[in-house]
Structures are given as structure tokens and as C-alpha cells.
Amino acid sequence: MKLLLTSSGVSNDSIRRVLVDLLGKPIDQAKAVCVPSAVYAMTDGGTYAWEELRELGGLGWRGFGVLELTALPSIEEEHWVPSVEASDAILVGGGSPPFLGYWMQESGFAERLPELLEEKVYLSVSAGSMVLSPTLNVDRDELERTGVYYDDEYEEGAPKGAGSDRGLGLVDFAIRPHLNSEDFPNTGT
């Protein structure tokens, strides 16, 4: 597997060089598909999704598509699988880890991901990185009290009935993006 797990994306030249090395070719010769789904569980998620798509799409890809996990259960696989298979990179954005974990599993994407990653680069931002761990950091007291999968480190919850504490288990370690960031004050504790 070729994993580039980041906190905030391709934020400097060093990360960009690693991405090119993993791709084995320049970005302008590669195709990518972006999964922005995690951000929709946050306040003003649509705005953040646009920013994320603009940033990741603006890296100069030869081809760039969007894969919305929440739509996958309602469409035929032959409508979305070919575009993912034709890509060189799968870009998974940030947002709510419990929401992303839930929709990766619910959509069937989690099942397909290990096979896809035999050849593709997985570039992730924040929640997209965290979801590869075996389990997600979920506040158990909040879950029991409200039924909402709430991540107290990032002060965000998945919508009721659309969250999970299960990660994909593709790596055997926990990922804590944004450590000591002023934007995420609870992360360092």
C-alpha cells in the first residue's frame, strides 16, 4: 500500500515530492478521485467541501473526479467503480471521523479499498487518515447518553444514526492529526 497520511493535505513541497514519488509520475500525468464525505457532518460542511475540493483538485491532476460515499448505496456499482479503478490516487478529505467511517462501511467502499490500494496512492487529510486505524476515538459516555458518535478531541459528532467507532484497520496504529494545533485545542491532551 502507498499511503500518504497527512493532517492538512499537500501543505508543503516535501509532501508534494513524496506524493510524486508514490505516484511514480508527475501529478499532471495522474488521475485522482476525491472523497469529501467526512466534511458534510460538520457545521458549514458544504463550504469546507468546496475548499477541500479546490485545494486537492488544484494540485494539477490530469483528471480529477469526486466520489460521494453517501450516494453510493443508491447507485449501481458500475456507475462509480470504473472511475475509481481508473484513478492513480484516492484522496480522502477531513471532517468527522465517525461519519466517514460509517459511510465508508455503509457504502461498500471500505470493502473495496484494500484491493484498490494494491496499485493506487491513498492521500488523506485528517479524518481521512484517522479512519485507517482499527478504531476511532469516540466519547463512550456521550455515545451512551445521546446515541451520537462524538469525537471529543475535535468537538464534533456524526449525525445521529450515521456514525461508527470502527476504523478500517488498514494500519495498526492510531493517528492523531493536528497535534498541538491552536485550531484543535483538545488534540494535545
Structural features, described:
This protein has 189 residues and is of the alpha/beta class. The protein has a single domain (2-157), classed as Class I glutamine amidotransferase (GATase) domain (Rossmann fold), CATH 3.40.50. The chain has seven helices and seven strands; from the N terminus they run βαβαβαβααβααββ. The chain has helices at residues 13-23, 45-57, 77-85, 97-107, 109-116, 127-130, 140-146, and strands spanning 2-6, 31-35, 63-66, 89-92, 121-125, 150-151, 156-157. The strands form two sheets. A five-stranded parallel beta sheet has the order 1-5-4-2-3. A two-stranded antiparallel sheet has the order 6-7. The longest helix is centred in the N-terminal third of the chain and has 13 residues, at 45-57. The two termini are 31 Å apart. The mean pLDDT is 86.
Largest sheet: 5 strands, parallel
What value does the Rg take, in angstroms? 16 Å
CATH topology title? Rossmann fold
Class from helix and strand fractions: alpha/beta
Q: How many separate structural domains?
A: 1
Annotated CATH architecture? 3-Layer(aba) Sandwich
End-to-end Cα distance: 31 Å
Low-confidence runs (pLDDT<50, min 5 residues)?
none
**Shape assignment:** globular
Order of helices and strands: EHEHEHEHHEHHEE
Helix content: 25-40%
Give, in spatial order, the strands making up the sheet with the most strands: 1-5-4-2-3
Number of helices: 7
